[in-house]
Amino acid sequence: MDQDYRKQISQSFLNGMLKVIVLYQASVGPVYGGRLRNDLRAQGYEISPGSLYPLLHSLEQSDLLKSRLKVYKGRMRKYYEITVCGKTCLDEMRTQVGDIVREYSLKLRPRPKAPRQRITKSFKTL
Question: Residue 28 to residues 16, 24, 25, 100, 102: CA-CA distances in angstroms?
């Protein structure tokens, strides 16, 4: 398989999961970009503001998030909250991801190589 294609599949998967993670974070309570970046970084995901903010805007344009401006320490900060459509989408994604994990977790797990054993006992005939 072409290395670029593997990278494309991986990137596409991670982008989809990132949207689910953002929806989940917004379902817990209002979030803003800087906090999301820090939360994602703590989970091992590094995302630039140039990638995060367009993602937030696309989720908002899709009516999965809504935003409101609030002054914090003299600066305007945009907070994102999940919408009813966003909650429905998140619930559907939870179900789908759970189904996929259950279905494929054993199938995708590398099989351990069992040592070959010699049969030393003879079979008894009935």
Answer: 19, 7, 5, 24, 25
Name residues whose C-beta falls within 8 Å of residue 98's C-beta, 6 or more positions apart in sequence: none
Q: How far, in whole angstroms, is CA 95 from its chain's centroid?
A: 13
**Domain 3-99: which topology?**
Arc Repressor Mutant, subunit A (1.10.10)
At residue 126 the predicted structure's pLDDT band, cuts being 50, 70 and 90, is very low
**Domain ranges (residues) in the chain:** 3-99
pTM of the model: 0.75
What the block records as the tokens of 74 is: 């003299």
Tokens for 101, please give them. Answer: 């994990």
Distance CA 54, CA 52 (A): 6
